[in-house]
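Fig. S4 source data, part A: sequence.
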Amino acid sequence: MKSIAPLGIRCLVLLFILSGWLCVYSTQAAPSQDPLQGHLIKKPGLFKSLTEPPCSYCSTENRKGFVDGIDRVLAWIRAAHNGGAIPLRHFLSGPRVINDTYGLFFFDADGGYVSAFKKDYGYEFYGWLNGVMIVKGPDGTLWSALSGVALDGPKKGQRLERIPNFMTEWGYWLMLHPESTAYNLYDGKKYFVTDLPQELSREAKESMGQGDSRLQPLAPVLGVELGGKSKAFPLNPNQERACYTDEFGGTAFAVFWYKPTQSAVAFKSHLDGRKLTFYADDISPETAPFKDKETGTRWTLAGRAVDGPLKGKELEWVPGVQCRWYAWAATYPETEVFRTITQ
């Protein structure tokens, strides 16, 4: 009996050590399911959001002379007063987030995009995840500024709803819709004008993952979401105007690309039950550079028919964001890439 007891104790000790080692091993080996782990850099408070800036009209604000014709703007469409435009230098480059009646707007200077969602309040800049901007909602939920998907917090898994929009220039938008909405610039001193960053921020670089080599990281694309799928359309800098046609997610659509204003936007090809075949028309005026083969109607970048049998009609906007490839690929790793260009 004396020889058995020490042996039993030694076995128990050995089992205890072994079980502890297994617990440690399994804890270390288990992959994390937290989408925020790995490449998140937190900088809450770095930028101060702008909430409900007073409104005016584009024509009124243009007369003040504070916005240059080539200033980049986010234009929202399909709304009262034919939508509106937000000059990035004056209202988004500094705050990065606007909480407003017209919408919720996020500017990611690194990812090269502005995303626009239905109106909401209490959002603020939070940091970077894989080089892409993260915002925090009023209840602490963390959202992807690009996809509008809640990554962590009380609303995890939910999605913000996009509103129709596209990127263009102040002068070009004024040609299309001088009567549309703009924010009041007052005497030009109320809001601090912030030049658009020309280089990626250190934090964006540090938070980036390995990247997707199918395109160059900073290549401009229009990322489109339809039917639970995503596709990136590379924007050809050598084409003055182009129309890329495609169908996926059960929907046929056309991507309009206009180089002079660096603008890309997608619209559904069906209108009133009829499929239209769009193309870029080299001899059409700059205000309406696209036509459809079926009727010869001319269409603007805002998807409005301004000349021809369908004059007055509007195309249905397809959810998309004009951004840099690395940002789209990091947010939508399963994305397809459009390869065949159909004019």
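Fig. S4 source data, part B ends here. The longest strand covers residues 241-248.
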